[in-house]
Design brief:
Layout lengths: L7 H26 L3 H20 L4 H21 L4 H22 L3 H9 L7 H30 L1 H6 L4 H42 L3 H26 L3 H21 L1
Length: 263
């Protein structure tokens, strides 16, 4: 049954999935606690437009996507800090970005590439992708270990944390950069449409089980890794896209925990 695990591209898919699971779920805990799920989904839409721009001008996709996503996230974060309502701005900007990306892909007649970016293609992961994902995951693990507590405290009382001498704005903007890079690196695995699920569902599931957010930083990656393994295996068995199955497994875990907790 598991003979497919001996294939090199399948092993790369598992490694990429685990790396994405760890980075996305760690970043996802503060995303859920700060109620930034819509923000993360919006960055994914901007990434889609960034990819279209890179393809139009024959530029390297990854640097362009990261650059644009980070700039947009920092600008929006600045306006949020200044008290501007983020919902309307994000809704208009990110819907426009998605529409621009679809039009650009259509004009270039890149419908096949469009589908892979929308829904992901985990089996197309290359060794250089794994190196990039490993680097990002390592940085996020270090950031979570050093500043995760402060970032969560900021979700409850930012002014108090600032009064304690913590550089609140710096931590917030660094977090936005890491969030943007995590989303860009996850697009190849889950696609634009589903990438926000890796941020939200494992973290939300862990917070349903645990009262301590610190243990959520441990349980959330565990749930995400289990869903990646199960999603890839089911993808092989049923011959359906792995990204969608990963999200379905995560959703099943979430609703299972919710039902057990309610009962």
């Amino acid at each position: 049954m598991f003979e497919f695990l001996s294939l090199p591209f399948v092993r790369r898919a598992f490694i990429a999935g685990v790396l994405t699971a760890i980075s996305g779920s760690l970043v996802g805990v503060p995303v859920v606690m700060r109620r930034m799920a819509f923000f993360g989904d919006g960055i994914a839409h901007v990434t889609f437009a960034s990819i279209a721009i890179a393809l139009c001008f024959d530029l390297p996709i990854l640097p362009v996507a990261i650059g644009i996503a980070v700039i947009v996230a920092l600008v929006l974060g600045y306006f949020v800090k200044k008290g501007v309502s983020e919902d309307t701005g994000i809704g208009v900007l990110f819907s426009s970005a998605m529409a621009f990306g679809i039009v650009a892909f259509s004009l270039m007649q890149e419908q096949r590439s469009l589908m892979s970016y929308l829904f992901g293609d985990i089996l197309a992961v290359r060794n250089q992708d794994l190196f990039f994902m490993s680097t990002i995951t390592g940085i996020i693990v270090v950031f979570t270990f050093l500043l995760g507590d402060k970032l969560v405290y900021m979700s409850y009382d930012e002014e108090f944390v600032k009064a304690m001498g913590v550089k609140v704005d710096l931590i917030y903007y660094v977090f936005l950069v890491l969030l943007s890079v995590t989303i860009v690196s996850s697009v190849k695995i889950l696609g634009i449409v589903l990438v926000a699920a890796m941020l939200v569902i494992p973290a939300a599931s862990s917070l349903l089980v645990l009262k301590s957010y610190r243990f959520s930083f441990i349980l959330s990656p565990v749930i995400a890794c289990i869903s990646v393994f199960a999603g890839i295996v089911f993808s092989y068995i049923f011959d359906v896209p792995a990204g969608a199955l990963i999200v379905l497994v995560q959703s099943g875990i979430f609703f299972g925990i919710l039902i057990l907790k309610r009962s």
